[in-house]
Amino acid sequence: MENRYKFTGTGNNGTLGWMLQRVSAIILMFALTFHIGGMITGAYNGMNRLVLGFVLIFGVFHAVNGLKMITDDYVSGIGKRFILLLIYWAIGIAMIILGLSLLP
């Protein structure tokens, strides 16, 4: 029987990325809740940098991992996927460095 699918290269290797996406989403929910709650009540001053750092780092990871998953689904060439992944991580790391340098 002939293979009817155009590309089947990543069907068995996405479980770790999927799990990390869910874990980072849960961490982001807690960190954002803590951050917004602290902003509303004015309960913390020194923790602001720490919480915003968590939000920034896990937010960028969550975004880059999501873009990687989309790329794995829709880009068939391994070289093209690798180049896009390098671009995603380069932009993500630059955003983390810039964001951490701008925190109060």
Q: Please identify the top-level CATH class.
A: Mainly Alpha
CATH architecture: Up-down Bundle
Total of helices:
3
Summarize model confidence as the mean pLDDT. Answer: 82
Q: Domains counted in the coordinates: how many?
A: 1
Shape: elongated
The low-confidence parts are none
Provide the CATH superfamily: Fumarate reductase/succinate dehydrogenase, transmembrane subunit
Residue fraction in strands: under 5%
**What is the terminal separation in angstroms?**
62 Å
Topology pattern, helix = H, strand = E: HHH
Structural class: mainly alpha
Largest sheet: none
Number of strands: 0
CATH fold name:
3 helical TM bundles of succinate and fumarate reductases
Structural overview:
With 104 residues, the chain is mostly helical. 77% of the residues lie in helices and 0% in strands. It has three helices and no strands. α2 (47-74) packs antiparallel against α3. The radius of gyration is 18 Å and the shape is elongated. It starts with 14 loop residues before the first helix and ends with a helix.
